[in-house]
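Troubleshooting entry. The earlier prediction with NAP gave an output that would not parse, so I re-checked the input for stray whitespace and re-submitted. Clean input:
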Amino acid sequence: MKTDLFIAGAGPAGLTAAQYGARAGLRVTIAERLAVGGQALLIDNLENYPGAGGANDDAHKSGFELVDAMKAQAAAFGARFITDAVHTITKTSDGFTVTTADSEPWLASAVIVATGTKHKTLGVPGETEFYGKGVSYCATCDGPFFKSKRIFVVGGGDVAVSEAAYLSRLSRDIVLAHRRDKLRAQKILADRVLHNPNITVRFNTRIVEIIGEQKVNGVILEDAASGARNREEADAAFIFIGSTPQIPDVRGAEFKTDSEGYVLTGQDMQTSIPGLFAAGDCRKTPFRQVVVACGEGAIAAHCAAAYIDGMI
Ligand code: NAP
């Protein structure tokens, strides 16, 4: 099957690229293995997306609402959506071959990788065993199951504090455990946790085990300085300790990533392989935000169109 521009991943970066590519007159195929929208679907209130949010609930817009509108917009311009997992991307003499789980190989003139990231795991005993039974990586998905319960949140970045603030609307007993003595999160987000009566912040605290029977009923905490351990009651452990890129298998030794696997590109979002672009959270970038992903998607599609023009 042939397409001009193949986009792997339909989060904000991929969706924006699809819209720009289709508007530029390209035949665009965009593949998403799960739900269109990616991690943006989990955002309760897009308070810092320009024009979409604000400091109060009156201006409230969710990630779902945004990506739903982005999908409709891209489709209206002619982008073709497929539900499929991209496996390999291989440069050929006249473009790329993209293999997926469920389709015949796609032949594309240019490809944009916008496959985002996946959450990191703590790697402590009980984490895998109690996944779905009190261990979670998504507050908007699982928080309502723990209304009025004692919830531990792990991490000190933007996601951990945002999700702790969200959970504090469901329970008055949230404990944020962070391994250092300072939060990494942006100040405006951190302040909401530090001054929240429903949230206790435990600095220099690691969760070293999650315990329970049929479901989580406690955590073992370790003091990062002294190494002293104690058990505390808990109904849930929500873990937000960062993310790691998820990239299809790009065939070719010249494909460059940094040491953590984030894709390296130029300002035009082109990777080290001509005609292969990357955009959004899977790219090495100093600031992972929906608005940044959208901007990168637009640049990637614009430059992919120019690349394809040069091929003709
Ligand atoms: P992050 O900024 O990398 O923070 C990860 C946090 O987890 C850090 O506090 C880190 O501790 C802690 N951590 C890492 N490994 C750990 C381990 N093994 N055990 C215990 N704690 C561990 O990741 P993130 O919060 O997922 O954010 C990802 C990106 O999304 C960021 O670029 C962020 O700015 C962006 N984002 C922005 C918004 C917003 O603007 N509203 C919202 C969500 C996300 P240390 O601090 O000690 O390293």
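This one parsed fine. The first strand starts at residue 2 and ends at 8.
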